[in-house]
UniProtKB/TrEMBL annotation:
Membrane-traversing stretches: 37-55, 67-84, 90-113, 125-143, 149-170, 206-227, 239-257, 269-288, 294-313, 333-354, 360-378
UniProtKB keywords: Membrane, Transmembrane, Transmembrane helix
InterPro entries: MFS (IPR011701), MFS_dom (IPR020846), MFS_trans_sf (IPR036259)
Domain Major facilitator superfamily (MFS) profile: start-end pairs: 1-379
Any single Pfam family the record assigns to this protein: MFS_1
The species this protein was found in: Duganella lactea
Protein name: MFS transporter
């Protein structure tokens, strides 16, 4: 069941990232200008945030399996719409809807916590989240490879078919889980603000991860533009291979979860935030030949992905130690808050790259984990 949940979350969350390395070809087809190209990623993340705030809390109210299947079928429809349009407005609207539907992944994660024993909850959530991080990281190279072979529309058609098939599989295999909250929907939404006010660990963990995910989104939104630019001059296949190496960072998720189960959350958080800082410092400090610079960027992608993965799982382990009846809302708030950081990072990244080039992106990206370290120092 853990493997099924890990694969499912990876496949679902990948929908948020297919467009990240395809900004160039999508913009050319839909007529988006370079300054607005970051909206392709930003609106998907905005949709995800909206879904996290208004749909994921339903996991504490409605039968979870039915909620997941419905969200997946709606995602499949949005993916089909994106694949068949050449209109910028329609594509951006479809991107928003893809983000909203993909919150099904965050209804799956609390199920994993619910099914696991308290002593191994961090390790189990870490395994599921490693599947999620693998989905994020594999989405980019897969999108680039499919685009090279069949055009950018094909990846959206392929994902729509996958989401429909996954909906049928999860309907057959997932256990039913009917929460006993006794609340109506608007009371449930109203409780989100109360939870945010009364749960300091939620506010802190969300702030740390918002900074880390902002840096992550900025890097991966802009690095494809740099890699295909005049200095590195890589093809989409080259970008795919580059992104594929970054998958190595997913190994940090189960390790961080296991360390959190052992009571080592503080040291794990320190390591994660330091890795985020190191990732952006390396390419700023090391300048040499084209090959060396490319190697530094590869190392940067691995280190950054490790830091983001480790910090994410450590935060979720802390939240899932709280009562089961509020886990879906806590998880929804946590992911929504740090995805807002991701949306800021991706939109700021597009502007920084257009105005100040790759060096400007690196300096802006470095600020995010440094701010997180500053916040963490006050804990």
């Amino acid at each position: 069941m853990v493997w099924l949940l890990a694969i499912a979350t990876g496949l679902i969350v990948a929908n948020l990232y297919y467009a990240q390395t395809l900004i160039g070809p999508i913009s050319a087809t839909t007529g988006l200008d370079p300054g607005a190209a970051g909206l392709i990623v930003t609106l998907t993340q905005v949709g995800y945030c909206l879904g996290l705030l208004f749909i994921v809390p339903l996991g504490d109210l409605l039968e979870n399996r039915r909620l997941i299947v419905t969200a997946l079928l709606l995602t499949a429809l949005a993916l089909l719409a994106a694949s068949f349009t050449s209109s910028a407005r329609l594509f951006l609207f479809a991107s928003l809807c893809i983000g909203i539907g993909s919150v099904a992944a965050q209804i799956v994660v609390p199920i994993a916590a619910h099914l696991s024993q308290p002593a191994t909850r961090g390790k189990t959530v870490g395994k599921v989240m490693s599947g999620l991080m693998m989905g994020i990281m594999l989405a980019r190279p897969l999108a680039s490879l499919v685009t090279d072979a069949f055009g950018w529309h094909a990846i959206f058609v392929l994902s729509a078919i996958t989401m429909a098939a996954l909906a049928l599989l999860l309907r057959a295999r997932l256990p039913q889980r009917q929460p006993q909250s006794g609340m109506h929907y608007f009371a449930l939404l109203g409780s989100l603000w109360h939870l945010l006010k009364t749960t300091p660990v939620l506010r802190r963990r969300a702030a740390y991860q918002a900074c880390m995910f902002g840096a992550f989104s900025m890097f991966w939104t802009c690095v494809s533009l740099e890699l295909t630019g005049p200095y590195f001059h890589l093809s989409q296949t080259g970008v795919a291979l580059f992104a594929l190496v970054g998958v190595a960072g997913a190994i940090a998720s189960p390790i961080a979860g296991h360390r959190a189960d052992q009571g080592k959350s503080r040291s794990t958080t320190t390591i994660a935030l330091m890795l985020g800082t190191l990732a952006f410092a390396l390419p700023l400090l090391i300048h040499s030949s084209r090959l060396v610079d490319l190697g530094v960027l590869v190392l940067t992608s691995i280190i950054l992905d490790m830091g983001v993965s480790a910090n994410l799982v450590t935060g979720q382990r802390a939240l899932f130690a709280l009562p089961a009846e509020i886990r879906s809302r806590l998880n929804g708030l946590y992911i929504a808050l740090f995805f807002m950081g991701g949306a800021i990072g991706s939109s700021l990244g597009g502007w920084m790259y257009a105005a100040h080039g790759w060096t400007g992106v690196l300096w802006a990206g470095l600020c995010f984990p440094v701010i997180a370290l500053g916040l963490y120092a006050t804990e």
